[in-house]
Fold each of these.
Amino acid sequence: MTSASAAAADGSTAPKKLEISKLLIEGRAFLALALIIVVFSVLSPNFLTVDNLLIMASHVAIFALLSLGMLLVVLTGGIDLSVGSTLGFSAVIAGFLLRGVPIDVLGVTLYPNVLVSVLISVALGGLIGLINGVLVARFKVAPFVATLGMLYVVRGVALLMTNGRTINDLSGDEGLGNTGFEWLGFNRILGIPIGVLIMVVVALVIALVLARTTFGRWLYATGGNARAAELSGVPVKKVTVWVYVVAGLCSAIAGVILASTLTSASPTAGNTYELTAIAGVVIGGAALSGGRGTVRGTLLGAFVIGFLSDGLVLVGVSAYWQTVFVGAVIVIAVMLNSLEYGRPRRKRKAAVAQDAGAGAADAGADASGSSVGSAAPDAEAPSAGGDGPSAGGDGPSAGADGEKTP
């Protein structure tokens, strides 16, 4: 019996032990969020109030939307560094349209209503994602390089459109029919901010797609092993393009919500938000190598970052220290990811080595047994061979006799 079969036999009879360390690693995002809530509730009595929680949730909604789009890209083994710039660009487009689009040839200025402005802004975000996807899937450009280039291009266009200035006063004019933009940022339904509700809807849609559709299975297969998935009939290129499109759409939605909340659009909005989105995905337990990650974990990661940042502000910690704390959380999350996803690989390698050693031992035993079993035939071979020459000797003598006999 090999070591693998013996381990299987032992595993079938031995009771399963509850590994505390494994539970801590797999539930790290939830435990971190619970710890943050407990600590800041003790440090500040206003932290756990309903109003403050809703305000923090509305802040988290921006990060969560970016992280959800980033999750899909990371599941394929890619990365999107342009989500922050896409957020700022979409906000600028919305502000530019609401303030009026001058057409010098006709001598008129168009004032699109809020719905048209929002749809155009979101569509342009999807277009940016489409360009990223085509560069990565069709032209085989490394995701890091392609999206880094788009980060600079999109940010530069936003700065050119505004001359580096912030577009203020997006409330619109009733006479022009472009009022109501602040509804996304300030209004509530059943006491819940609109941004939070949009975040919930987007999260539910993505979770259903990942868990219940063929596209979700294709996505995980692409991230697990793109070559094997392609040989199995998965349209890897199409899946890759679509995940970048969805990431662009999520970034644009976040940009519109942010501009509505601030009633202004800055071309520098969303600066370094791409790093926050990646942090939310990593803290949530997704593997940057692809193929592993969940919507639930990503949402928890976004809430960890959002609640940590707002909690530090609430207790009066300097903004510089906030950066240090968030960076430390990201490093710890990456280390825990390495522990979670590295241990099974090491176990598999050890099992393979044990099986190989057991196979070599079995092969050695078989070889020794065969050598012992073949000893008797080998001993008789010389006598048989001796008979051969004697028989052959008879042949020449017979031939010699034949020559002497006429």
Amino acid sequence: MRRKIGRRGSRDPHRRNSRQIFTDAPVAQANRRHYWPNPYNNLMPPLLFSNGTILLADRAISGGCVGIAAERIDLVTEAPGSMAADRAIIDLAGGYLAPGFVDVHIHGGAGHDFMDGAEDAFRAVCQAHARHGTTSLLPTTTVARHDQHLAFLDVCRRLRHQDTGGARILGAHFYGPYFAKEARGCHPESAVRPPNLAEYEQYLGFDCITRATVAPELPGAEAFVGACRAHGIGCNVGHSYATFAQMEAARGWGVTHVDHLFCAMSDRARLRMEETYPMRGGVMEATLFFDDLTTEVIADGKHLARELLLLAFKFKGPDRLALVTDCNRALDMPDGLYLFGPKDGGEPILRRDNVGVMPDGKSLASGVLGMIECVQTFHRLTGAPLVEVIRMASLTPARIAGVEDELGCIAVGKRADLLVLDRELNVKQVYACGVRVV
């Protein structure tokens, strides 16, 4: 008997250790208020994907079929090839069908940075990352001047949910400039600053920010988080040397996520440099300790060694740990010197050995690889089940972005954002809203 697979009920099969699946309700509600148009010229006939392995959110089904009509998935079945009438067949050739990836921390690619503040730069980055399997993303700011952030947000608002020729823009990740100066990493020092009400009221007025990052030890951080939450914006901690106690307080304000685990954050050793005893926990320890905090890793094989990826996976599991690229403008570009952030005032960095580094070679400077490379690397280094690794690049970041009702897994009613992968996990075809973009 044919078995159809639709939406899951209220009991989520992905629960680990009886912990409730994370959902940032205000962010999800804010996204539901926005009309979701189909920006793609969707004149394609109904399609049927068959002759491969379907990677669902909780399991893989070999020999199943997935059908799409217009912009949505309308069929998921374990009966091979039985629903082909009036549908064009997409032969998976023994490979995989996976959900499109969602990247919640991404700066650029193909020679462009979102902070260039131009539509052609946004489109070029979205098209480049689509080639690496990303079908939805949050353009992410860097530390920059106020006028540069305004220009970024203006373009982001205009292109949100519009046809970019590649990945869909879900909204902005307002990442810099509210960092601890000592923890700024590769961001330019001159524009690092604490939250300023008159300034961020202008940012919030664009109504296109999905998530925002702040170092909670900064003056004005609590008020900034409160203002963001009032606008339905999810809040992150990043580039911070906060103590465990300050992280606990930030949770109370409404912070739910921590940027790039193990990178640009305090830990016991760093805080001991300021106070010899007693030894205190920092952002890293708090992130691992609090089950309700989600986090992310840059799984490019350069930022984090195998044991750190395993540690993150053991503590957080696939429902609280997302994969991100943190990619700069050097994606798909040759080794050499680039600018991180805007062309005017960005920080010089090098692309070398498939990672970004500072010119002196002594510290990292964001990523240069796409999401499929992160999926391949995490799967290879950790041995984690492929279904769970794919979920960390799709459904988990979709939840963090508040769009899990629309995106993130292969299920009836979801947007038809799909990837055709070969057995080596190389991207062969990419579909956004049922339209092939790669």
Amino acid sequence: MHDVVRRKHHPLMRCMPGLPALGRAGRSTARKTLGTVAVRLAAAAVLALVSVAPAWAVDDAVPGLTMPRLPPGALPYHLDVGGLDGTLGRGELGTDALTTRRVAQTSGAPAPAGGTAAEPEEPEDSVSELNRKLTNPVSSLWSITNQFNNFKLANGRWNNNWNFQPVLPVSLTRDVNLITRPVMPFYNIVPHETAPGQFERTAGLGDLVLLELLSPAHSGHWVLGAGPTFIFPTATSTFTGQGKVQVGPSVVAGYLTKEFFLGVFPQQWFSISGSPARPDTSQLNLQPIAALFFGDGWNIGYSGNILANWKASSGDVWTVPVGVGVGKVVKLGRLPVKFQLSLQYMPVHPQDAQEWDVQVQITPVLPKLIKGTLFQ
């Protein structure tokens, strides 16, 4: 049965309709020929990957420290510089979250006549330096944060989600970087009341958040960035998304040293289109950033995003968390990975909204796929 299905849907059956009619010898010859072609194609693919694979994500040194990095956040989940959150969006220290950090860089200066320019090898960053870069919302590192939030609601129920948050920086010129930070809620499990005292849990995809930040490449200890932020109605349930296309401004400003990082990262969204059956939105996700760095890749800092739903009634506008997070960067072979555990309590929150959050983040650093600058 399975063999019949495989043959029926094999791609060669569509482009070589005569193949099933071949005799046994013909089919044997065809299989040998196809096997040889497949091996050669696989070898060519491996050689191509080896030829373009870059060194593990390490950055060109910038005086003082690194370039910057970013995040997004929105209502029915928790983002972080991280994060979106249940009633609006909540976030946390820049190990990621609201969004995407990668730096795409293509080669810049032309090769000298008679040969190809050899790119000097960069020294590998220590785990402490990688930790500082991962905490920076506009860093030049490529990374992917997997953020798992476990919210305990004021009514005693639990809301769980997983936010997949790449960070994709690109060097547009020698002086300006573009940081793309999408936040993709791969699942959002939301409890909702079906009858007095009775609840059901609905699971589905959440709304996609996309942040685009322009940031100066050489700003010393200052971390600066600004750009548009978007929310797209990709949720698979009315309980896991807002059903509106939203757009607004975002800014990041901070001061980063080897010992600490202080900054602020607000994002504001306004609904501009979407389902007419869903209410219009106007919401703020403001992420305070405060972190202390220690040796061997350790850090401790504030965790949480301040949320405001400007369309809510007066008593349900604000969500204000008080939280702490502890993180560490380790190297698994050549792959740097940051692990962070955070606990947040929301003394100010809307009725029946999140009151506690236990958050786990796992952030592998990716190799740079493009080096240099896109434009001269």
Amino acid sequence: MNGPRDPQRAQEIQVCHLGLVPYRDGIAIQERLRERRIADEIPDTLLLLEHPPTFTRGRRAAAEELPFGDSFYRDRGAEVHATDRGGRVTYHGPGQLIGYPIMSVTDVHGHLRTMEEAIIEALSQAGVEARSRHAEGIDYTGVWVSAPGTPRGNTQVGNPAGARKIASLGVHIQRGISTHGFAVNVENDLTPFSWVIACGLPDVTMTSLALETQGAGTPQGGVPNGGRPGEGLACFRRRMAYAFCSAHGRRQRLVTPARLGIAPPGPSGSAPHRRPGAHGRAARRPAPPAAHSVAGHAASRGAGR
């Protein structure tokens, strides 16, 4: 697969912010842009967006990873979709940063590792030290916040006490072009992760940037990694775009949805959100929960980010 014919374009990655996008629409957008990238009509492109409450099944997902049945999740305001990406079951919701790189890929493992590297760098700049655990097996693909005292780059097999997952990855490659990508928990409600076996790991603990940095006025604030309070999705999205392009040795070029032939997002350009509180603590899988609507949470959250 040759890159775009314009040498300047070959040194750039287009970055487009889409706001809140329904999951089916996100798939359709990716498919259209993939065909344009295959035809060499556009350069490599990174879409950054959010989804309404949605559970997705990857190609390796097992039925028991959604243990309560699809109707349970739909009754709580979340959609359920099968996808062609790799990986298992995960959750998407407002406040989580989704990245869909539509780009030429010749080495899928290298593609995954570069995304992990970019996420780790962006989190580090936001005050959270994180690491990859891919050497422990395919189910540990993604980015994790180390247990206290765990050196960065540690490859201990298993789930060390206190290790928390903050970002998930899953991709699909067709005719040398990638779709799907990464999801970083920034300021989203983590409760819905506890309703599934997230990432196929029964003992996984999910976390978020907001949870890892809450209440940290100074490095002595008693919060893991001396994080900085108040960094929301809009700020982290900019960090992530820069880190992603830098990890590929390229410049970012911001483009509008209209430039890509995509209908613009709603007036706010983003979704309401909920910061960690009663439902924002690190998510572990409990007994079947009482009725709880994630769509209702999204509707009641403030309009800004």
